[in-house]
Amino acid sequence: MLANRVLVLGMLSLLLCACSDNHKSLVQQGLVYCSEGNPETFNPQLGTSGTTADATANQLYNRLIDIDPKTGDVIPRLAKSWHMSSDGLRYTFVLRRGVHFQTTDYFKPSRDFDADDVLFSFRRQWDVNNPFHNVSGGDYPFFDAIGMGSLLHDIIKDNDYQVTFVLNRPDASFLSNIATDYAVILSAEYANQLLAQGVPERIDTQPVGTGPFIFEGYRKDSFIRFKANPDYWDGPVDVNPLIFDITKRSSRRLAKLVTGECDVMALPLASELSEIKKNKNLKLQSEPGLNVGFWALNTERPPLNDPKVRHALALAIDQKTMMQAVYYGTGSPANSLLPQSSWAYDSSLPPMTQNLKKARELLADAGLEHGFNLDVWAMPVSRSYNPNARKMAELIQSDLAAINVKVRIITYDWNTFRRRLARGEHDSVLIGWSADNTDPDNFFSPTLTCAALASGNNRANWCDPDFDAILAKALLTTDRDKRKAYYIKAQQYLHDAMPVVPIAHGLRFLATRSNIEGVRLRAYGAISFAKARRVK
Amino acid sequence: MLSYVIRRINLFVITFLLLAIVAFSLTHLGPGNALSHVANTDGLGPGQIAALRAHYHLDDNYVVQFGYYLKRIFMGDWGYSLASGEAVMPALLRTLPATLELILSAMFLALLIGIPAGAFAAMYRKSATDYAVQSIALFGYSIPIYWWALILVMLFSLKLGWLPVSGRISLLYEIPAKTGFLLVDIWLSHVPYRLEAMRDALAHLVMPTVVLATIPTAVVARLTRTSLKEVLKKNYIRASRARGWSMWKVVQRHALHNALLPVGRLLGLQIAALISGAIITENIFDWPGIGNYLINSIYSRDFPVIQGCLLLISSFVILVSVVTDIVFTMLDPLHRKRIHAES
Q1: Interval A318-368: pLDDT, tens
Q2: How far is A83 from chain B (nearest CA, A)?
Q3: In chain B, what residues touch A14 (CB-CB under 8 Å)?
Q4: How many CA within 13 A on the CB side of residue B205?
Q5: Facing residue for B84 by CB, picked from A7, A220, A252
Q6: Residue A68 C-alpha, separation from nearest chain B C-alpha, in angstroms
């Protein structure tokens, strides 16, 4: 009993001592972001998931150019300026001087960022003979899905601070694609050092970039730790350390935000928004998202390879109920992959309305009047384009029961889910796409082309050369009206083929403690903490 | 006594072997091919796959495979996580101390509250104190801990804002791991925010400890009460009382010591219940212990991790039971005599 007393007294005195601790609290300097899942890698070139982009693209790296979220114009980043040749085939970038790569425990740069780094970053993805091309699997889903490989003719180093990209054909979306989260610049010097050490794969697990934060550590399902980059070229970084607290359940993230364990929370559920608005200590930002939630049907598997069956399924589901039960008014119903705010949206497309009679007829036409069994994969995480895939799957299950289609709902851990999905193990999946830039091409090329199929990002496993040809033609011209005509054609083509059933465009939300500023929500792209700071 | 110890150790070895068989069979019972349960084969060529099959001896018969499996286990090669690629053994060694820390603090709390409560109840039998202790104990024993944890979270975290919802310490504090026991590590560390971190870690420890300690506290209180009640009926107690000693003095000098022996013994056996409680508690509070690691790996069908966790948790439970058995048999002269009569 005496020992117990000593222990209790010890703990109490410790608590009291702690109260008089003079050290400036870490809580006042650091920032905790409650994120929703594990990044697949620390190099955004290798993945297309928003979770990976959030954890890496704007914290660790920079790109040559960015897109101004307000105006949609291209703005300088690591490239100071650029110009396009009159034939649209050569883009020359003049690079910023005096940009340091991060000094970490595992790498000390001996030179500043220059043209070699740009060449390395793009050649790694493009050139199959580059020693880094096959490192970490050799898949560059975004680069491959937008067909960048076939677009590039050459990348030339004009001098240490000037690089020219030579294209095989004009491409109206080139600059937008160079400005996405996936076009980050890696250090060529670091790559060479790793190659010499015989551990090239570390480039993707122990990252080095020019971004505002330096990677310190990662534990799956637990945290990612960053510290502020003292040499950041774009002004001082206020927050140090920056922690990604990986918290999969949204309710848990919200609870942590309420208690102040998190400062910023990813992806609040639609049903939680009113709670956030009510709380004086919290702020909610919302933005119409450039995204689309859809139900992708694996067109390689019978009977889903029959467009009639796909149409029947699309007609059987009740989009209205989904909008209420899943989005709680935080989304708008979709009838195309493009949101209505896009300049290329086809306003003549009919709305998606439930019609069970027609659906049954179509199934009977396809010889399936007795129905069939169908797996619907539901994402285990919430995304702004689909806040609750599980619930949506349950609604689909009950809707399809009416046309004798028996649905089995399947879900896995997010990384396993994506891995199996890329292998095409699914019948159908509730997933979606968040745009990386404002170009309409970004909704189609990365998701539904043959190139996207090869890169494992085409969830419908749908490859149609005619559709690809329409998109290719759209990219050849910079005339917006002509491009729009092609995209309208593309949308109608998709409506007829129905490889994916568009469901909704979700609003994007970001909840923060009210004393956090500088974390701005954008309609597309990944989160950035470069300008985050704590007020009061 | 020696033969008793040997028998117990024997029991441990046999049970461990049985557990190893169960863990090993997971590789072959899961859906799909066996190799995909022990290694991540994504993107590997046929040559690499053949090399992996050879490494795990998957083409040999089950008995040979099991032999190699045991060999790997004893060499410390517990495989690699399919989900993260991390070696399982270091991850287990990292997460186990977190679980032990939680279990030990829950145990400490259970004894701190349970023994005095039980003693009071026994001393003042059929009084209001007795009934109060008994009903609170019954309540603690029967309340579903998941629900209980949620109530505490709602009240102390969300409503009052006193305690953090989850985790072991705010991730802002970086504490170098030496022993794996966080409180000890903070104590040993030289970081400038040591006291701040200690306070934060203790705040994180409160709710999981209370939740996990609820059932053991009830058990200890009830056992202490029953056991002390029996002891207080004994003649030597009556004699002491007749000598004019106060009830307090009698309990302190003689009764409690004798009454606690069976309590301690049963507490050792409670370790299995405590571990399963810890798995649930860790999951609720996101406590980065072995239970949480197990649950996460089950969700991601990470077979090597599931195997590792199951083997480690269950051998730990058996080890503790065997050790407690031996220790209390040594301490308890009556039981020592019964060893042979029982077998």
Answers
A1: 999 999 999 888 888 999 999 988 889 998 988 888 999 999 999 999 988
A2: 40
A3: 195, 198-199, 202
A4: 21
A5: A220
A6: 32
Tell me if B27 sits within 8 A of B66, measured CB to CB: no
Predicted confidence (pLDDT) per residue in A116-165, tens digit: 999 999 999 999 999 999 988 888 888 887 888 889 999 999 999 999 99
Closest CA to B269 of B218, B332, B317: B317
Out of B166, B192, B299, whose CB is closest to A256? B166
Q: Which residues on chain A are in Cβ contact (under 8 Å) with B112?
A: 4
**ipTM confidence:** 0.81
Q: How far is A256 from chain B (nearest CA, A)?
A: 6
**Residues B247-300 pLDDT 10s:** 788 887 778 877 887 777 777 777 888 888 999 999 999 899 999 999 988 887
A50 pLDDT higher than 80 = yes
User: Band of the pLDDT at A10, cuts 50, 70, 90?
Assistant: low
Query: A425-461 pLDDT, tens per residue?
Result: 999 999 999 888 788 998 998 899 998 888 788 999 9
- Joined together, the tokens standing for residue A142 give 């975004």
Q: Which of B181, B161, B173, B166 is nearest to B199 (CA)?
A: B173
Query: pTM of the prediction?
Result: 0.82
Q: Which helix (H) or strand (E) holds B323?
A: helix B303-331
Whether the CB of B43 is below 8 Å from some CB of chain A: the reply is: yes
210-269 of A, contacting B, C-beta below 8 A: 216, 220-223, 225, 241, 243, 245, 247, 252, 255-256, 258-261
Minimal CA–CA distance to A333: which of A321, A323, A318? A323
Instruction: Give the CA-trace dihedral at B153, B154, B157, B162, to 10 degrees.
Output: -100
Average pLDDT over residues A385-403: 92
A282 to chain B, any CB pair closer than 8 A? The answer is: no
Eight-class DSSP state of A45: G
> Which pLDDT value is given to residue A16?
43
- Per-residue pLDDT at A266 exceeds 80: yes
Residue A221, min C-alpha distance to chain B (Å): 8
Instruction: Judge contact between B227 and B263, C-beta under 8 A.
Output: yes
CB contact under 8 A, A14 and B165: no
CB proximity list for A186: less than 8 A, separation 6 or greater: A43, A45, A61, A117, A120, A121, A124, A203, A207, A208, A209
Whether chain A has a CB inside 8 Å of the CB on B160: the answer is no
Compare all CA atoms of chain A with the CA of B165 and give the residue at the minimum distance: A256
Comparing CB atoms, the residue among B112, B173, B199 nearest residue A18 is: B199
Phi, psi dihedral angles at B185 (to 5 degrees): -60, -40
Distance between CA A424 and CA A357 in Å, rounded?
A: 31
